[in-house]
Design goal:
binds ligand C6P; seven-stranded mixed β-sheet; 2 domains; 14 helices; Aspartate Aminotransferase, domain 2; Aspartate Aminotransferase, domain 1
């Protein structure tokens, strides 16, 4: 475990790359951006890449026979290759560009789900899922008559794996779990869960929106059939995400959306779909966002995901310690050593929105609400919570500022 003296990276060395991080708000408050689980900020290298593509290389991809279209196509496919290497997918066609994690999961629910799930089948998700990994399965259940079941969480905020074992059966068609909870920060044992799902003959999907940006991901080691994540949570432009799918499954699945690019042939009577990934990339894809995501991956690779993970663990541990000193804080989720850089909490007797609003006056940006995880909040017996979430460019000083602002919030409410 890193200490202040042995930090795996120096956040200050990166901050100059991020123009937005030098923002001063409300007159004199330096921005402390602690809402990275919602979306991260972008370094100059990604912004410049986006500008460069629009200024010098932009045309539609996989369509033109002209020079510019070739350039754009090459950059787009290079970005796919960067993603492939980043997550260690076996082949480029297994990397499908979508508009985001939500779209990627919906693609699986509509395409694989409609073709493979029948009345009476069971879909297992967990109590800690983001709505993006629960609503598409409820919709699939509505369409097919399947049943959605939920792995409960323990008091500590971990998945109850015994309950999971008792739930998995020959009726289970799909197990869809988050790698990291966007509220509790819990890091789930996805590899083990995927193994148990496969033992039962089920297909496994991992929602990796909160893990791919922060820790090394090897989709072949995880062995999941599908892995979904978003570019904007890892410094890429918004509007691009990724669905990794096992090639044999992608080949067998029907296309989700119809249109240009996803066909081999169209006649007056119908169409023949293209092979993956084109089969699942109907219409003009998110060309520039995907290339920008490639630039973000270059940036992350230079730092190293292991260092990022270790550094965020340090900030999380620090945040727990300083908030404990403040007092009156209820932490949601397990101890820092079992979670990612996400610290959710409630403050005794103070509404989450009030906390976030007062923190904003101090320049501290955190999220308040149910964080698109209403069933989890119900399970925790609360309507809303606060969440601070870190990335490698956050500093120990910002964590101090955050704690000071929470202390100030308590003072204000004590006076009322
Ligand atoms: N969570 C948060 O503040 P999109 O919106 O498609 O990029 O990602 C959806 C999504 C899926 N799964 C998990 C675990 C997530 O955390 C998110 C996005 C953000 O927590 C925005 S609600």
């Amino acid at each position: 475990m890193a200490t202040a003296e042995t930090l795996p990276l120096n956040a200050e060395a990166f901050r100059n790359d991020f123009p937005i991080l030098s923002t001063v708000l409300h007159g004199d408050q330096p921005l402390a951006y602690l809402d990275n689980a919602a979306t991260t900020q972008r370094p100059r290298q990604v912004i410049d890449k986006v500008v460069e593509v629009y200024e010098r290389h932009y045309a539609n991809v996989h369509r033109g026979i002209h020079w510019l279209s070739d350039q754009s196509t090459d950059l787009f496919e290079e970005a796919r290759e960067k993603v492939r290497q980043f997550i260690n997918a076996g082949s480029a066609p297994e990397v499908i560009f979508t508009t985001g994690c939500t779209m990627a999961i919906n693609l699986v629910a509509r395409s694989w789900g409609d073709a493979n799930v029948r009345a009476g089948d069971e879909i297992i998700i967990t109590e800690m899922e983001h709505h993006s990994n629960s609503v598409p399965w409820h919709q699939l259940a509505e369409r097919t008559g399947a049943v959605v079941r939920h792995v409960p969480i323990t008091e500590e905020g971990l998945l109850d794996l015994d309950a999971f074992d008792a739930m998995v059966s020959e009726r289970t068609r799909l197990v869809a779990i988050t790698a990291v909870s966007n509220v509790l920060g819990t890091i789930n044992p996805v590899q083990e869960i995927v193994r148990r799902a496969h033992d039962a003959g089920a297909v496994a999907l991992v929602d990796a929106a909160q893990s791919v940006p922060h820790e090394k991901t090897d989709v072949q080691a995880i062995d999941a059939d599908f892995v979904a994540f978003s570019g904007h949570k890892m410094m890429g432009p918004s509007g691009v995400g990724v669905l990794y799918g096992r090639l044999a499954l992608l080949e067998a699945m029907p296309p989700f959306l119809g249109g240009g690019s996803m066909i081999r042939r169209v006649t007056l009577d119908g169409f023949e779909p293209a092979d993956p990934p084109a089969k699942f990339e109907a219409g003009t894809p998110p060309i520039v966002p995907a290339i920008g995501l490639g630039a973000a991956i270059d940036y992350l690779n230079k730092i190293g995901l292991d260092k990022i993970h270790e550094y965020e663990r340090f900030l999380t541990t620090q945040a727990h310690a300083v908030l404990e000193e403040v007092g009156g804080v209820r932490f949601l989720g397990p101890a820092p050593e079992k979670k990612a850089g996400i610290v959710s909490f409630t403050l005794d007797g103070i509404h989450a929105h009030d906390v976030a609003q007062i923190l904003d006056r101090h320049g501290v940006a955190i999220r308040a609400g149910h964080h698109c995880a209403m069933p989890l909040h119900k399970r925790l017996g609360i309507a809303a919570s606060n969440r601070a979430s870190f990335y490698f460019y956050n500093t120990p000083g910002e964590v101090e500022t955050f704690a000071e602002a929470v202390r100030a919030t308590k003072r204000i409410f004590r006076r009322r």
